[in-house]
Amino acid sequence: MLQVCAAEKVSYEESGIDAVVFTAQGDMRQALNNLQCTVAGFRYVTADNVFKALNNLQCTVAGFRYVTADNVFKHCVRSEVIPACEIVHNLYRMGYSSDDILNNMFRVCKTASIPEFLKLEYFKHCVRSEVIPACEIVHNLYRMGYSSDDILNNMFRVCKTASIPEFLKLEYFKEIGLCHVKVVEGLSSLLQLTALISRLCLKQNQLSK
């Protein structure tokens, strides 16, 4: 990607390249297409420009950037249920479906960078049993309009590459998967996402006993 940018004399920020990689989900062809779209539309590759060009899920208070889902995991790791749920609820209130929210959580969980014991700050809160902060993030995403499915899918993707203990990662996969099944079956309310965050926060305590 960097070689292409150098050869084509593309101006970029590191966050922009990270956003391209994040949206490509490991597909180099998709990454190049995303890069081309961003350059064609804005000429300068930044995270915001990438998301705007692709009309992709972002997670910030002002928009939807990767960090929002990242913060959800952060609260979950700390068992901060309320903050994590608040984020998800915010996204939900903004019109995003449960499917959208879950998908974004999967994606963030795949590429987010956190300390070695945890890849994602979102999961950081869960590992620390910080339920409130984790729920706050999820609730915000939900209020911002992201679907439960988007949030869950993103959580799953982020969790795939997170630097957390394998035994805990497997438990997170199981919980996210079970929640996703419920969402696909039609139970896509904010309550499902809140319950998921609570279960993720409990896992660390349960497994450490």
Task: Explain what the structure shows.
The N and C termini lie far apart (45 Å). Mean pLDDT is 77; it is low at 57-65 and 113-120. The radius of gyration is 16 Å and the shape is globular. With 209 residues, the protein is mainly alpha-helical. The protein folds into two domains: 2-54, Helicase, Ruva Protein, domain 3 (Orthogonal Bundle); 66-208, Zinc Finger, Delta Prime, domain 3, CATH 1.20.272. The chain has helices at residues 2-7, 14-24, 28-42, 47-54, 66-77, 81-93, 98-111, 121-127, 131-143, 148-161, 166-184, 190-208; strands at residues 11-12, 44-45, 78-80, 129-130. Helix content is 72%, strand content 4%. The strands form two sheets. It has a two-stranded parallel ribbon with strand order 1-2.
Low-confidence stretches: 57-65, 113-120
What would CATH call the class of the largest domain? Mainly Alpha
How large is the radius of gyration? 16 Å
Q: Mean of residue pLDDT? A: 77
What is the fold's blueprint, element by element?
Layout: H1 2-7, E1 11-12, H2 14-24, H3 28-42, E2 44-45, H4 47-54, H5 66-77, E3 78-80, H6 81-93, H7 98-111, H8 121-127, E4 129-130, H9 131-143, H10 148-161, H11 166-184, H12 190-208
What would you say about this model in short?
By secondary structure, the chain is mainly alpha-helical.
Q: Which tags fit this structure?
A:
Zinc Finger, Delta Prime, domain 3; about 70% helix; about 210 residues; 2 domains; 12 helices; DNA binding; Helicase, Ruva Protein, domain 3; Replication factor C C-terminal domain-containing protein; RFC_lid; 4 strands; mainly alpha
